[in-house]
Specification:
The protein is an alpha+beta fold. Helices cover 29% and strands 24% of the residues. The chain has 9 helices and 11 strands. A 7-stranded antiparallel beta sheet has the order 1-2-3-6-9-10-11, sandwiched between helices. The protein has a two-stranded antiparallel sheet with strand order 4-5. α1 crosses α5 and α3 crosses α7. It is globular and about 45 Å long.
C-alpha cells in the first residue's frame, strides 16, 4: 500500500507543468479558465489548477467528470498524504507547516472523492489544490455540494467543474508562508447535456451559508471566467442541481 502511494506520488511530482495535453481536456472547448495576473497552470493527470504565487494557493482548479470516472471513484478505497507541490518555487508555495495548528482544514478544490484511481487521488492532495477552509464548511455543506455534483454526473453522463476561492476582504493568513484565507469558496458546474451552468458560493466561516449566483457575478468578484469555451447563451442558462442551496 505504502509503495503504491509512493509510486503514485513520485509520478505526480515528475509530471512537468504546462506540458501535459490532458490540461485542455478538463475544460469544455479545450479552453481553460482565465484569470489575469496569475501564476502558472499546473497540469495533472486528473485536473488542472492555476496558482497564485502571492497567496500560495490555487485561484481555480478544473476537472472533467464522467459517469464512468464517478463510478470508479466510488469504488476506490483509501486516502493519500497531503504534500507540498515541489513544482512550485520554495517561498512561493504552501508548506505542510503552514496548516499545522492553524485552526483551518486543508480544503480540496478538486475533491479527492472525484478521483478515479490511486494516482489521481494522490495528486489531489497536493497543497497546490488546497485552500484554508473552515472545518464546519469542509465537512458539512461543502461535502454535500461535492456529492450532489457526482450524482448529477451519474445522471447526465458528464460535467465540467471549476472550483476556487474568493477574497471579498481581508480574512487574514495562516503559517509562516502566509497562505491567504479565502472569505468564500465557489464551485461552477457546466452540464453539456443541458447547455447550462450553476455556480454556488459558500461563506468560509464557522457558521457557513451557501447560495447560488450568476456566472457574471462570479467573474466580477473573482476575475475568473470558469468556462470561456462555451457560448454566451449557455453561460446565461441556469442549471438546476438537486440538493444545492437556492
Amino acid at each position: 500500500m505504502r509503495l503504491t502511494l509512493f509510486l503514485a506520488l513520485l509520478t505526480f511530482m515528475l509530471t512537468p507543468a504546462f506540458a501535459d495535453p490532458i490540461c485542455t481536456e478538463v475544460s469544455p472547448g479545450g479552453q481553460l479558465p482565465t484569470q489575469s495576473n496569475a501564476g502558472p497552470v499546473l497540469c495533472n493527470q486528473f485536473y488542472a489548477a492555476q496558482q497564485s504565487l502571492e497567496y500560495k494557493e490555487p485561484l481555480w482548479s478544473a476537472e472533467h467528470l464522467t459517469e464512468e470516472s464517478v463510478e470508479q471513484a466510488e469504488k476506490l478505497q483509501g486516502r493519500a498524504a497531503f504534500h507540498a507541490d515541489l513544482r512550485l518555487p520554495l517561498g512561493q508555495r504552501a508548506e505542510l507547516t503552514d496548516y499545522k495548528r492553524s485552526g483551518w482544514s486543508r480544503g480540496h478544490m478538486t475533491p479527492s472523492g472525484d478521483a478515479p484511481d490511486k494516482a489521481s487521488r494522490a495528486e489531489t492532495f497536493a497543497l497546490s489544490n488546497v485552500v484554508p477552509q473552515s472545518i464546519p464548511l469542509n465537512t458539512g455543506l461543502w461535502n454535500k455540494i461535492e456529492r450532489d455534483v457526482r450524482s448529477l454526473t451519474a445522471k447526465d453522463g458528464e460535467v465540467y467543474v471549476v472550483t476556487g476561492p474568493a477574497f471579498h476582504g481581508d480574512a487574514g493568513t495562516i503559517g509562516q508562508g502566509r497562505v491567504r484565507i479565502p472569505t468564500s469558496i465557489w464551485k461552477a458546474v457546466y452540464d453539456p447535456s443541458e447547455g447550462a451552468i450553476a455556480v454556488v458560493v459558500c461563506k468560509n466561516v464557522l457558521q457557513p451559508t451557501c447560495g447560488q449566483v450568476s456566472v457574471e457575478a462570479l467573474i466580477r468578484v473573482t476575475g475568473v471566467d470558469p468556462f470561456p469555451g462555451i457560448t454566451t447563451p449557455e453561460k446565461n442558462k441556469h442549471l438546476p442541481i438537486e440538493g444545492w442551496p437556492k
